[in-house]
Amino acid sequence: MKTLDIIALLLVVIGAVNWGLIGFFEFDLVSSLLGGMYSAASRVVFALVGLAGLYAISFFGRDRTISKDQSR
């Protein structure tokens, strides 16, 4: 995988875990770690998670089959 793909997937997982915590326990982990929902650091993380989610949409259109030339 490309480095950008790995970073995007990591951010999407962080976002998914955070939303799961919000849904199940009403606890926002990102905000609590970074100083509140409206702190600059939290807003940057939320923005990066959103961009990573949009980028991850491109994963659906990719061909993931391995040809004989690539498997060597």
TrEMBL record:
Keyword vocabulary terms for this entry: Membrane, Transmembrane, Transmembrane helix
Q: Does the keyword Zinc apply?
A: no
Where exactly are the transmembrane stretches of this chain? 7-25, 37-60
Pfam families attached to this UniProt entry: DUF378
Q: Among its keywords, does the record have Membrane?
A: yes
The highest taxon in the source lineage is Bacteria
The identity of this protein, by name, is DUF378 domain-containing protein
